[in-house]
Amino acid sequence: MKKQLFTLLITAFTIVFVFSCKDDDTYVSEATCFDGIQNGDETGVDCGGSSCQDCITTILSGDVFDNITLDASLEYELTGAYTIMDGASLTIPAGTVIKATGGTASYIAVAQGGQIFINGTSSSPVVMTSGSSSPVAADWGGLVVCGKAPTNVGSTATSEVADLTYGGNVSDDNSGSIRYLRIEYTGATFNSSKEFNGLSLFGVGSGTTVEYVQSFEGGDDGIEFFGGTVNGKYLVSTNSGDDSIDFADGWSGTGEYWYISGGAKAGIEGSNNGDNGDAAPVTNATLRNITVVGPVTEGALYYKEGGGNFSIENFYTDGINLGVKVKSTDAEAAVRIEAGDLVMTNVEFANSTTGFVITDYTGANQSFVTEGTTTGAGNGADVPDWATGWTRF
Known about the structure:
The chain is mainly beta.
C-alpha cells in the first residue's frame, strides 16, 4: 500500500511539473538554460536540473549574468530593461525578431564589461521593433552599449539613459559585435532633455564592431556616439525625429558609408562638448562616403559645441537648403574653423532647394568646403547596393 501511494505521488508530481513547464515556457535548446534556471530570475520556473532544463521563456527582462544565446525560431518580447552585466554576453543569431512593449521601461543595454553579439546577415537581419499593432516612433527605448574607452566628460560618467557607467582609458575595449541590425520605432521619452536613440554608443572602444545598422522611424537621434573610439561602417538612419547620426564628447573614430534620409533636424550633428567646447580629448572624426537626402532643417552637417577635428571626404547631399550649419554664438567652433580643423573635400550639393547656401558660417574662412562630383554612400541619392535586403524605407 505504501509503495502504491509513493508511486501515485511521484506520478502526480511529474504531471504537474511537466505541464507547468509547458504552460509557462517554450522548449528550446539546453544551451540556453543555466543551473536549472535561465538567467537567474528571468523564467520564473526553477528547472532544478531535471528534464525541464530545456524550457525557457521568450520574455526578455532583468539583468543577465551568464552567456545567453537566443533562438531565431522564436519571437521574443522585451517587457522591461534587459541589461547584459559585466562578464556576461548576449548572442542574437540571424533572423531573430525582438518586439518591445512598455515605453521607456523597455530597452536592451550592455554594461561595461558585458558584450553583445548580433550576428545578422544581409538576407536575414536581426530586428528589434515595437510590439504595438500600430507602431510609431518612440514606442520603446532602444539599444544602449557602454564601454571603457575615453570621453571628454570625465574619467567615467553615467549614461543619459539606462543609468550605466561608461568611459575610461581602454581605447580598444571590446563590447562585442553588431552586424546587420535593424532597430525600429525607438526614442521613448523620459522628459524634454532625456530621450532614447535608436543605437546609443557610450564610450565604446575600437575593439567593438558596428556595421550594417539601420535606425528606422526613431523618435530622437537615429545613431549616436558619446565619446569612445569605436568605428561605424555601413550605417543607415531613416526618418529620425531629431538628428540622424550624432557624435560628441570626444568621439575619435571613422565613419564610412553612411546613408541618411528624412531626418527632422541635422543629417549629421558633430560636436565636442555641450558644457565646454574645448574639453579634451577633442572630438576627432574622419568621415568618408556619406549621403544625406533632405529635407533637413539644421543642415547636412551641424558643427557645434566646439566642433572638433573633422576630415570629411566624398559627401553627397540631395534636396537640402543648407550645407553646413554653425551656431553663431559658438566661439570655440569658430576658432577651429579658422584654424582649418574642419575640412570637407569632394562635396556635391545636388537638387538643392530654393535659397540654398553652402554654410551660414560668417567668419573669414569660407573655403573649408571643396565641391566636386561624388557618389556618396554608393549611389548618390538612391539607396546604395550594400543597404538592400536588410533595411526598410
